[in-house]
Design brief:
By secondary structure, this protein is mainly alpha-helical. It contains 11 helices and 6 strands. It has one domain: Rhomboid-like (Rhomboid-like fold). It is 61% helix and 7% strand. The strands form 3 sheets. Strands 1-2 form a two-stranded antiparallel ribbon. A two-stranded antiparallel ribbon has the order 3-4. Strands 5-6 form a two-stranded parallel ribbon. Helix 7 packs antiparallel against helix 10.
């Protein structure tokens, strides 16, 4: 037998090279590869949706306020409430007004998702993303029910909120890491630049923080991963029901992006 870094092996086995694949162990007990495949997939879906907007006559360098895809997918309260077009709570989060809008949101999702997805695991990451998206839609209908809203940054702000919780749990300095500064800069733009959906950003961010806390507490109590995923479902359902209840108010006065 021959001693090796992985223990005693026979001479024939010791002479063989073993391929090593990097993996990351998640707090929930699962194992995921270090490549953020869910993040890539979400970005791809957004790009495909934007291309569909372009082919239907909206998007490009101007505002996406026309076209069949925009008309059928944008979030507008009365259409959700009176026409029962509940899919808008989700589809609006995959539509964008122009090239700059989608470029900024996709870069933000890539930057945050590349760090967060390997840390919490793919299943939790996807659950977080859609929960934050729905919380962002709830925020729109709560604060700005009289506007049409589109964009992925409500979900992106949710990723940032969850990453802040995860970083704090791991003892990472939030100022030195730049996470708090990133949040402050983005909220400064949210509250000072016209045409940005305040409700989506605030709702998504708070939703992400809440989901991050749920994940943290589930891990501390050694609960099965299904428990934290079920909590995301409960929060998502609450956001949908709350959004539907609020969506009846509003007279169209403009378009906001998020």
């Amino acid at each position: 037998m021959t001693p090796t870094s992985v223990g005693m092996r026979c001479p024939e086995c010791a002479s063989q090279k073993t391929r090593v694949r990097r993996v990351a162990r998640t707090p929930g007990g699962g194992v995921t590869t270090s490549r953020p495949l869910a993040t890539y997939t979400i970005i791809a879906i957004n790009i495909v949706a934007f291309l569909a907007e372009l082919t239907s006559g909206s998007g490009g360098f101007s505002g996406a306020e026309n076209g069949n895809v925009f008309d059928k997918g944008a979030l507008y309260g009365p259409l959700v409430h009176y026409n029962h077009e509940y899919w808008r709570l989700v589809t609006s989060g995959f539509l964008h007004a122009n090239f700059l809008h989608i470029a900024l949101n996709m870069w933000f999702i890539y930057a945050i998702g590349s760090a967060l997805e390997p840390a919490i695991g793919r299943a939790r990451y996807v659950a977080l993303y859609f929960t934050a998206l729905l919380c962002g839609s709830f925020g729109v209908l709560l604060l700005q029910p009289d506007t049409v809203a589109i964009g992925a940054s409500g979900a992106a702000f949710g990723l940032l909120g969850a990453l802040i919780v995860e970083a704090r749990r791991r003892g990472i300095d939030l100022w030195q890491s730049g996470l708090l500064l990133t949040a402050l800069i983005n909220f400064a733009f949210t509250f000072t630049v016209s045409g940005i959906s305040i409700g989506a950003h605030v709702g998504g961010f708070l939703g992400g923080i809440l989901v991050g806390i749920v994940f943290d507490q589930a891990d501390r109590r050694r609960m099965p991963p299904a428990v934290s995923l079920a909590a995301c479902v409960v929060l998502s359902v609450a956001a949908v029901l709350g959004g539907i209840a609020l969506s009846g108010d509003g007279n169209l006065i403009g378009t906001t992006v998020f």
